[in-house]
Amino acid sequence: MQKKGIRQQYIKVFIVSIVIAIVGMASMYFYASNTWDELDDQQQNSYAKSKQIEEISDSIQDLFFRIRGYYAFQIEDELNHAYQAIEDIHSHSKEFRSFQLNAEEQQIIAEIDSFLIEYEKVILPKAIQFVEENDYDSLRNLANSGANLTVNSFIKYANEYKDSSKDKQRLATDHTMQQTKYFFLIITIFGFIFLLIPIYMVWNVIHRVVKPIEEITHAADQYETEGTVLFHPIQTENEIGALSQSIHKMMERIQMNEQDLLSQNEELITQQDELFNRQTKMEFALSEARFSRVRLERYNGLSHILSFSLDKQEVCDQTFDYLNQVYQSDLGFLWLPSSGIHALKGISQEFFDEIKYERLEYIRTRLETESYFIIKREAEYEKGIASSITYVYDFVVGIYNVDNELSVVSVLSRIGKPFTEDDQKDLYGLLKRIAIAVDRIEQYELISHERQLNRNILDSINEGIRFVSNRDEKDKYNAALFDLLGMEPETEHNAWSREEWTENFLKQIHDPVRYKAFLDEAIQSESTKFITNEYVLSLPSEQSRVMNVYSVPIIIQDEKVGTIFVHRDITHEHEVNKMKTELVSTVSHELRTPLSSILGFSELLLNKDMDDTRKKRYLETIHSEANRLTALINDFLDLQRMEAGRQSYTIEDISINEVVEKAVANLLIQSPHHTIKVQDLTYSSMVRADYNRILQVFTNLVGNAIKFSPDGGSVNITLFNQQDAVTVSIADEGIGIPSDTIGHLFEKFYRFDNSYSRKIGGTGLGLSICKEVIQDHNGKIWADSEENVGTTIFFSLPLKQQLSIEKIDFDKPLVVIVEDDVSIPLLLGEELSSKDFSVIHHSKVSKAFACIEKRKPAAVVVDLMLDEGESGWDLISKMKDHTQTESIPIVISSSLEKEPLLMEKFHVSEFLTKPYPLSNLSSIIMETMERSDGLILYPQND
Fold first, then answer.
1. Residue-wise over 139-158: b if at least 16 C-beta within 10 A, else e?
2. DSSP character for 420?
3. What is the layout of strands, in order, in the sheet containing 559-569?
4. CA nearest neighbour of 665 among 628, 702, 719, 693
5. Per-residue pLDDT averaged across 654-676, rounded?
6. Is residue 4 predicted with pLDDT exceeding 70?
7. Res. 794 pLDDT band, cuts 50 70 90
8. Which pLDDT score is estimated for 755?
9. Are 532 and 547 in contact (CB under 8 A)?
10. Which pLDDT band, with edges at 50, 70 and 90, does 729 fall under?
11. Which of the ends of the chain has fewer CB neighbours closer than 10 A, N or C?
C-alpha cells in the first residue's frame, strides 16, 4: 500500500518536474552564455583591428606631414619625427598581423609593408638628397612618379574598413538581438509546458483526494442527522481508501455503543446535581478562605507598621484604613489626643472639631467605667434615600496610657448593621495594640529629642569634650572639639578611632610625652580623681594657642564606665595674665621714671640755693616729666574706657587736611631735626569724626614716626581718595620694624625688641589706641615696614561727601556713572548736573546693572577698571545680552589702554583715555540720547 500511496506519487512527480526544469534552464543558460561570449569576442577582435588600421593611417598621414615640413623648411626635427612615424607604422603593422586576418586584410598590410621598405630605403633618401641640393624640380618629379599611390589607396581602405567594421558590429548586434528573442520564446514555451505539471497535479488531487473526502464528509453528516450507517467504503489501495474503511468501522462501533452511552448519560445527569451542590459549598469555603487570607495579610501589614513605624500619622492612617476595610464601617474617626493626629471617614473636619470640643466629655465619662460601648441611634443624614426607619450603630472605644490620659480614641459607625460581640472584642484588642505602638513612638520621640538636645547642648558649648569609654564603645566627641583643635570632624563614612585621634592630636602639641602620661593616668580604671593639665597647640595656619584640659571620671553603680576630657582655650586668659605682668612692669618703669625726676628736682629746689637759670631749667624738667606722666595716665584711662565701651565721641564734619596741618604745626616745634612734608591729593577729605580723637591719632602716628627716626630725616604724609574713603599714609625713614613682628604692632603693650627700641622707650599703647579710635570711626589701619629702611602707617576713614542714589529728579534725563573712585563721579556729576542731567553713582557691576535695568537711563558712563577686580566690560556684556538694556548708549571713561578684541566684539569705533575735557562727555551724551542702537563711545581727548 505504501508503494501506491498518494504522497509517494506526488513526490515523484514533483522531483521529476524539478529535474526537468533544472536541466532545461541550465541548457538554455549555457547556450545563451556561449553565444554571447562568441559575439563579444568577435566584436572585440573587429574593434581592435579597426583601431590598428586607424593608428596605421594616422601614422602614415603624420609621416607625410612631417616630410612635407622638412621639404618646405629643412627642419631636422621634422625629419626625426618622420623617422619616428615610420617606426610607429612598423609597430602598428606588427600588432595588426597578430590578429586573425582575411585575404584582403593580409594583402593590404603586405602592400603597406612593401611601400614602407621601398620608401624608407629608396624614395626618402633620394628626397633628402634633393632637398639638401635644393633641387626641388627633381623632388616634384619624384613625388609625381606615383610613389604615393599605395599610401593613398591604403588611407582610402582604412576609411572604408572603419565603416565596414561598424556595419559588421551592427549586424552582429542585430543577430544577437534576434537570437535573444528566440531564446526568450523558448523560455516562454518551456514555462508554459512546466505550468501544465501543477495543473495536472491539482486536477489529480481533486479527483483522487478531494472528491472521496467530500463523500466521506457527506456520509458522516448523514450519520449525525439520521443515526444510520449509509456509507460504503472506497476500495482503493491508498490513504483515502484506508481512511474510508476506518471511518466506516468507527461509525459501526459508535452505533453499537450508543445505547451504552445513553444509559450512562442518564446516570451522569443524576450525579450532576449532587456535584453542583458540592461545588457551591466548596466555592463558599474558598471565598471564606480568600477573605481570611486577605484579612490575615492586612493584619500582618498592620502588625508590621505597629511594630516598626515611627510615624504616628502613618500608624493612624494605615490602622484606620484597616479597621474600615475589615469591619466595613460607614463613617468614623481615629484620634490620638496627645498629638492631635487623626484620620476621618465620612465626616467633615468641622464635625470632628465639634465632637472634640462638645462631646468629648461625655465620651470620657463613659469610658471611665467601661472600656467600650455601643450607641444605637436613628439615622439622620446617614439615612440617604432609604424610606423606612434606619438605625446607626456607633462603636466607641478609648485606651488610657500609664499617666491615665486618653492615648487613643476611636468611633466606628455602621448604618443598619450592628457590631457583634466578637467584633467589639477584636476592635478593642486592636486599639490596645495601637495605643502600645503610639506609646512606643512617643517614647522614641522623647528619647530622640533628649538625645538631640544633649547633642545640641554639647555642640553649643565652647569647650571641646571627648568621652573615652572603658568598655568596648566608640569614643565620642562634640563639634567644638574639632574646631578647637583644627581637626577634621567625624562623618558617617569617616570616624576617628582612638589610636588615630590620639596620634594626630599628639603631633600638634608641645611636650606630647607629658600629655600622653596625663592621658594614660586619666583613663585607668582605678583613677577616680579630677586631673588637670595644660598644653600648647600649634596649628599650621594659626598662631599657637594655650589649652587647658581636665578629666572627669564617669561612675555608674560604683563602676567607672569612662572618662570625660574637657578642653578649654585659655589663650586669652594666658595673654591677659601676660599683659597684666607687662602692665605692672611697664607702669613700674614708665611711672617711676618721671616721678623720680620730679621728686629729685623738687628736693634740689627745696634744699639747695641756686641761681634762677638752674631753677628755671629744673622747673622745666619737672613740667616736662609731669606732662609725660599725665600723657601716660591719659593713655591708660583711654584704653580702659575703650575696652569697657565707655569711650564717647563728639561727631562732627571735619576736614582731614586741616587736622593734619594742626598736628604737624604742634610737632614741628618739638622736633627741629625732622622735615615733615604733607601732600594732599584728595578731591574731598570731609569725614564725620571726633576732631580731638583724630588729632590724637595724627599726633601719636607722626610722633612715633619722629621718635623712631632718631637720626632725623623726612616724614612724608600723603592724603588721597580711594573708592569712598580718604586714605592717609605716614612714612618715615627710621629704624623700621622686622617683618615677623608687624602682625603684633597694634597689640597692647607690644614693643619689638632691638637696641633702638630699648633706648627709645614707651608703653606700647599708642598704636593700640589709634586702632581703637579708627575702628570706632568705621575705618581701617595697617602698616608696611622694612627694617633699617623705614615704616609707613596707613589708615582710611569713610568720606562724608558721596553721590546720592536716592534723590533723583525724574523730570531730567538720568545718567548712571559706574566708577570705583568717588572723586571721578563727583567731578562728572557736577558737569552733568550743570547740563540738566540727573546722576546716579555705582561702583559694583551687579548693583549698577540692577539700577540700569530698573531705571532705563538715557546713558551709562562706565570705567573699565572697577572695585574688587571687576571690569566695566562685564557690565557692557550684561547690558548687550538683555533686550531691555541693549539699546542704551554707553560712554566709556577709562584710563586703560586699547583692547582690540573687546573693541571688535562690542563694535567700539574709537578708544581714547583719560584725562579729557568734561564738556566732551556731556556733548557725547546729548548727541546719543536720540539714538536707539546702544552705541558705545569714548569721549574725544582734545
1. beeebeeebbebbeebbebb
2. P
3. 476-477, 464-469, 559-569, 545-556, 531-537
4. 702
5. 79
6. no
7. very high
8. 46
9. no
10. very high
11. C
756, 764 Cβ separation under 8 angstroms: no
Cβ(62)–Cβ(50) below 8 Å: no
C-alpha cell at 153: 589607396
Cell (9 digits) for 379: 439615622
In DSSP terms, 689 is beta-bridged to: 652
Residue 264 neighbours by CB distance under 10 Å: 11
* Contacts (Cβ under 8 Å, ≥6 apart) of 427: 323, 327, 372, 395, 397, 410, 412, 419
Instruction: Give the whole-angstrom CA distance, residue 891 versus residue 818.
Output: 10
Distance of alpha carbon 550 from alpha carbon 566, whole angstroms: 5
User: What are φ and ψ of residue 684, in 5° steps?
Assistant: -150, 140
Q: What share of the chain is helix, strand, coil (3-state, %, to 5)?
A: 60, 15, 25
| Residues 122, 642: Cα–Cα separation, whole Å | 138
Query: Are 747 and 737 a contacting pair, CB within 8 Å?
Result: no
Pseudo-torsion of CA 919, 925, 927, 928, nearest 10°?
160
E-only strand ranges, 296-390: 331-336, 341-345, 372-378
C-alpha cell read off for 120: 624608407
- What is the value of pTM for the model shown? 0.34
Q: pLDDT tens, 278-312?
A: 777 777 777 666 656 655 655 666 666 676 677 88
How many whole angstroms from its chain centre is CA 925? 43
Length of the chain in residues, anyone? 942
Q: What angle do CA 909, 913, 919 make, to 5 degrees?
A: 90
Which of 281-285, 373-377, 663-667 shows the lowest mean pLDDT across its residues?
Answer: 281-285
C-alpha cell at 70: 622638412
Distance (Å, whole) CA 168 – CA 165:
5
| Residues contacting residue 681 through CB under 8 Å, at least 6 positions apart | 718, 719, 720, 721
Amino acid letter, 536 = V
pLDDT band at residue 632, thresholds of 50, 70 and 90? low
